[in-house]
Design brief:
- The structure holds two protein chains of two kinds.
- Chain A is mostly helical.
- Chain A is built from three helices and no strands.
- In chain A, helix 1 runs antiparallel to helix 2 and helix 1 runs parallel beside helix 3.
- The model of chain A has no long low-confidence stretch (mean pLDDT 84).
- Chain B has two domains: 39 residues, no CATH class; 111 residues, no CATH class.
- Chain B is 74% helix and 0% strand.
- Chain B starts with a helix and ends with a helix.
- The N terminus of chain B is likely disordered.
- The chains are: A mainly alpha, B mainly alpha.
- At the A-B interface, helix 1, helix 2 and helix 3 of A face helix 2, helix 6 and helix 7 of B.
Chain lengths: 74, 189
């Protein structure tokens, strides 16, 4: 897999709207290697943060749901 | 200036030096973050499963605020009675709209109760009778909290459904596909 191909996958899986994903993907082939790596790094870091935030949200929701289940049992 | 803004929005590769491009991912990251929040909100706002939960959250919040205000003698009673009057008016309007829809042969399911009715699962009788407990407690009893509690109990299934749906959305967003994992590893190696 080339860096360009890998970056296109990252863009495809990012939270950008479809239109912007297409615009970014169309630019990947003309990007320099340094730019490809910098953008990939930013996207990976962003993805990590999103996963972290989602994990935290799930944790809070689980707490809420557990509390609610206790109330239901009463 | 306009060109620079566009550059922040998406990379202008042909003009970028390595140092200049370093700033762009930060802008892209910010845009992505705003979009992620917007998309999450869109999921909550557009999903039918969330519609009932959303209303339940709004009701619970407003009822809690009214109940707190209701602890203040005088002003609190005004707010609490205001909610009860709104309830009576909303129900009268709902009844009238249903009658009109029935006469017109329209779908009764399309007639919705007004949002100003904050305790739709509690009868008018309970809402009004609890107000008469107030003088016994010198206006300090938050009587609106009684009907709010009944409403909250009725809203639990809706709130739970919303929480479960939200959990599903977050869980899905946490999933990293094999293809994505390979791409991430390509840059980490």
């Amino acid at each position: 897999m080339t860096s360009q191909e890998a970056l296109k996958i990252l863009i495809k899986n990012s939270t950008f709207i479809e239109e912007e994903k297409e615009r970014l993907i169309s630019l990947v082939d003309v990007m320099e290697e340094g730019d490809v790596k910098a953008l990939a790094k930013a996207l990976i870091e962003q993805r990590d943060r999103e996963i972290e935030a989602a994990e935290e949200a799930v944790e809070h929701l689980d707490e809420l749901l557990n509390a609610e289940l206790l109330i239901d049992e009463d | 200036m306009g060109e620079r803004r566009e550059g922040l929005h998406m990379p202008q590769v042909e003009e970028s030096s390595e140092a200049e491009f370093e700033a762009k991912p930060r802008a892209l990251e910010l845009v992505a973050r705003v979009k992620a929040v917007r998309e999450a909100l869109a999921v909550v706002l557009l999903n039918a499963e969330f519609a009932e939960g959303r209303e339940a959250v709004m009701r619970t919040t407003l009822n809690a605020l009214i109940s707190v205000a209701d602890t203040v003698p005088g002003v609190g009673d005004l707010v609490s009675w205001g909610a009860d009057i709104a309830k009576i008016l909303a129900r009268a309007q709902y009844k009238r709209q249903r009658q009109m829809a029935e006469l017109a042969g329209e779908d009764l399911g399309l007639v919705k109760m007004s949002k100003i009715e904050l305790t739709p699962d509690v009868s008018v009788k309970i809402a009004v009778l609890t107000e008469f407990l107030e003088p016994l407690f010198l206006g300090l009893l938050p009587s609106h909290a009684i009907e709010s509690s009944f409403q909250l109990y009725a809203d639990f299934p809706k709130l739970k459904a919303m929480a479960l749906e939200l959990r599903k959305v977050y869980k899905e967003s946490m999933e990293v596909s094999v293809e994505e994992r390979v791409a991430i590893n390509h840059f980490k190696d």
